[in-house]
Design a protein that fits this description.
232 residues, alpha/beta, Rossmann fold, globular
């Protein structure tokens, strides 16, 4: 792994049991991602996009091959080691917001910081900054039920970005949003990528998301069919 590489996927294969046999979701994937990329894994439903993101995010293990994340092999990491790497260095954005309904916007955004060694003052500063990034400082006392879908997804982005992670993995982050909210969300993530040099990797088949990508990796039946730079 060279100095700019933050993720390296080597001969990655993932198989799942199916009936009396097995289904190959990923088949010999080789990819590298550099710091600050704004990339997307695209392809039809069932092509392996989410499976690949889950393995990169250390939420699942490969059947064969390896994913090396910030110098650590997924095969060598213990469950605790993987959790620590996620906690310190990764943020996740999903198509379902996964907000805690009984907590306020502030508390939802603060949640990842509770696992880190930070003072109350440090947490407050980080949360307010993250909510300012996504334009929600006027909603800090609101609860998810009082927000629109677009606002909920912006809270999810703030929660993913609050600890300034090196890597953000976004699985169909605009799936439940209309066009205006989708573009607002994508412009926000593009801005954070530019300002913080965070590596963003999307799994998507949404043309709106694809139009923002600088690199597009197309998966077909668990294999990389195309890997192209689409925007400098």
């Amino acid at each position: 792994m060279n100095n700019s590489e933050i993720i390296s996927v080597k001969d990655l294969t993932k198989k799942f049991p199916m009936g009396m046999g097995e289904f190959t979701a990923l088949n010999g994937i080789n990819l590298e991602f550099s710091k600050g990329e704004f990339s997307g894994v695209v392809g039809p439903s069932g092509s392996g996009k989410t499976t690949l993101l889950n393995i990169i995010g250390l939420l699942d293990n490969p059947s064969d091959g390896d994913a090396i994340i910030m110098g650590s092999s997924s095969r060598d990491l213990s469950v605790r080691g993987a959790a620590l790497l996620r906690r310190k260095h990764m943020g996740f954005i999903f198509q379902t917001y996964n907000l805690l309904t009984v907590y306020t916007v502030f508390e939802n955004a603060e949640f990842p910081l509770l696992l880190l060694r930070m003072t109350v003052g440090e947490r407050k500063k980080a949360v307010l900054e993250a909510l300012e990034w996504v334009g929600l400082t006027d909603k800090i006392k609101s609860k998810p039920a009082q927000l629109s879908g677009g606002e909920c997804q912006r809270v999810a982005i703030a929660r993913a970005m609050v600890k300034r992670p090196e890597i953000v993995l976004a699985d169909e982050p605009t799936a439940n949003l209309d066009a205006d909210n989708s573009h607002h969300i994508l412009r926000t993530m593009e801005k954070l990528n530019h300002e913080l040099k965070t590596t963003f990797i999307f799994a998507t088949h949404d043309d709106k998301v694809i139009s923002y990508l600088r690199r597009k990796i197309t998966l077909i039946d668990g294999k990389v069919s195309r890997d192209e730079i689409v925007k400098q």
